[in-house]
Amino acid sequence: MNALRLDERIPEKGFKTPDEALYAFLAWVDDQKLTLYPHQEQAILSLFLGNHVVLDAPTGSGKSLVATAMHFKSFAELGRAWYTAPIKALVSEKFFALCKIFGAEHVGMMTGDGAINRTAPILCCTAEILANLALREGEDAKVHSVVMDEFHYYGDRDRGMAWQIPLLRLPKTAFLLMSATLGDTTRIREDLERRTGRTVEEVRGSHRPVPLEYQYCMTPTHETIPELIRTGKAPVYVVHFAQHDATEQAQALTSVEVCQKEEKKAIQEAIRGFRFHSPFGPTVKKYLNHGIGLHHAGLLPRYRLLTEQLAQKGLLKAICGTDTLGVGINVPIRTVLFTQLCKFDGEKVDILKVRDFKQIAGRAGRAGFDSIGYVHCQAPPHIIENARTEAKITDPKKLRKVVKAQPPTRGYKHWDQQTFQNLIDRPPEPLESRFQVDHGRLLSLMQHAQETHDDAHRGYEAMYELIEQSHAPPAQREKLHRDTEALLQSLIRAAVVAKDGYKLTLDPNLQQDFSMHHTLSLLLIEAIAVLDMKEPDYALHLLSWIEAILESPRAVLLKQVDREKRAKLMELKAAGVPYEDRLTALEDVTFPKPHAEEIYALYEAWRNHHPWMSVDAVQPKTIAREIVERQCSFADYIQELEMMRAEGVLLRYLTDVYKALLQNVPADRRTPAVTEMIGFLRAMLGMVDSSLLTEWEQLLSGKDLKEEPRKLDISADRPAFLARIRAEMQAIIRAMARSDWEEAAACTRRAEDGPWGPQEIEAAMRPFFEEFSELSFDHRARMAEHFRIQADGPHRWIVRQRLFPPAHREQQPDLAGFEPEESGSGWAISGRVDLRGDTNPEGPLVEVTEIGE
């Protein structure tokens, strides 16, 4: 698409005037065969005049091109341009897009996980990263311009402050604030102009490239969707506000013929070779084969990505998802169908905010795909049912006797057609300031003041000034001042801050980052230091501490409680405990918490010197430990807890555990058992879905690049690499020991023309089971001894693992390596690992080449 990379438009000696830079950018736009909309032209001209711009324009109207203009202007002026977004997925998407436009050597990315090319002139980051920088460095920060995408997050209850701090602390910076649902921004614009002395121009794009048509539906959902499809309004995004409801809707649609035979064949061809090997995978495949996509956070990321890819190809007729589907994801949706207009907002069930409604509705009709978009809304089910009943009865006397369907008693607030119309007609609510003070922000300012002025008291004064400058109303500012004083006193009592008259001095050992996660990581390091590495269960004990500092996955813990209650109930029944006593006993059952007393005791002592930490910041639990200790597969654990519809929750948690192990356990505290545990988890994640890890691993190895971003070489850390290969081989054998051929095949890396699918593995193992009846998987340490890996050239290895029949379970081998000709059955599984084309591939690493004697 790019006839000339945008950075190549800059002459060697630079531009003499801003007009020259503007003409160069417009020439590039012309190269792209693009025609600017009036609001794009107005915004770009204003930016090149040096103004701030607040851009409120509909979805699909080219806000990204205006952002590119802002980046180019800063880049041409040798400044640093920053792009911020609310979620890492958007930051990553923008990073790769800008790499194509400006060249990878000129673009960097920073998230909470790590950074790539952090000194680049154009940086993409989450809003919190920029807020922390602005808070510490203020007007000294190297921030020439900022594009704040999805700026309506300014009003977010939990994260809004991250969008306000840069506006308060970067007076020399030029801002572009963008969203499709800003509402009234008068106060924000006036304050920004007063603070910076720079004109703020509001640009509103009233023209929507794809107009919307609205309709209120009085037919049941299972009738509405087929009708939308029949009348050419597919693909339909069916909006729910709970994952369970989205899944139930997808299941219901499988009984409806939404695709023709030829369309189903096209889908089957598109997903040929895709592995649906997780417990919920076959269900996802069934939905897709019917032309129905499912998209919510409970799914594995690769299933969500597959749904997006199939939708982009126009193969899906309906996508049942939660309201998070459309946040920045370019999925062509022709019709948005709201199944309801009420939502639980974290405190209560209420009617959707106008901003939320418009944000979701705006996904209907995408430029380049549709000439019109449709937004439909379902009436409440009981209203539809009653209306149909009334239509069938013509006798008023009989009608009075009809028992009407009642609304739900929970999770519901009434809406009607007028509610729908109000959401369409009204402008988004004014953005409400969200400003809070906490220990972390106060300490950050105080530490910067101590480093620059040798007096932390200036940081306390800076917090006072920040509160005064904030957009909070006067009454709230008074409360914030009182809260700040209380925070300071708690730091003095904890000896984190020393006071001498008016001078304040911070403890010199205080860490640089005051986030909860980082502070708990320091707690973890202290805990690890006192653990006995000679303890037989040292690795598992260490894992319990890792899990204690991580956020608890509520969905998994609730399922653990259910499991524990079932086990307790059976125990009580067997003991003959009366029914009422059984119920009482079950009230106290919770999920397992290994080493809880030890963890709580050390944490309470830690809190005496870290008063900013909440009472319940540590949360002992055992999820990863259960899986590692019992050597469960991901599928086994999902099925045991009966949480097939929330696989993504467990995957994200295990990914966090793996990251924490790598980041927080020093090399000198890693025993062979710890290394094997890390390898086991990485192998499992690779076999299930490694998409959450690959970007993080890239960020973790990111440096100041002078070339295209390069992938991590996983073979560089040899102990971890070998542990992962061993874990993969053992996972294959574990599956074969249970005769789970699908799982065994899923644990292997299969070439496109490779023979080792489920049927081939079963056929190869049939003679073994005919001879020995069982495959042993009792001695994993013994299996590790009889594992061999041999280099077969650069980034290529051959691996072999002996297979043990049950007769050899109790034998203790004296061999240091794999020598099948000297003992055992002589059976082995052989494979290869080939990283020549990709040094950090997704999925399993081992490709099976032979199974037999």
Overall description:
This protein has 33 helices and 22 strands. With 853 residues, the protein is an alpha/beta fold. The strands form 5 sheets. An 8-stranded mixed β-sheet has the order 4-3-5-2-6-7-1-8, sandwiched between helices. Strands 9-16-13-10-12-11 form a 6-stranded parallel β-sheet, with helices on both faces. Strand 3 (107-111) and strand 4 (114-116) form a beta hairpin. It is globular.
Features:
8-stranded mixed β-sheet; 6-stranded parallel β-sheet; 46% helix; 13% strand
* Percent helix range: 40-55%
Question: Approximately what portion of the residues adopt beta-strand conformation?
Answer: 5-15%
Largest β-sheet summary: 8 strands, mixed
Residue windows where pLDDT falls under 50 for at least 5 positions? 703-709, 809-824
**Through-space gap between termini:** 55 Å
- Overall strand count: 22
Which whole number gives the mean pLDDT?
Answer: 87
Count of helices? 33
Radius of gyration: 30 Å
Which shape, going by the Cα principal axes? globular
**Largest beta sheet: what is the strand line-up?**
4-3-5-2-6-7-1-8
Which secondary-structure class do the elements indicate? Answer: alpha/beta
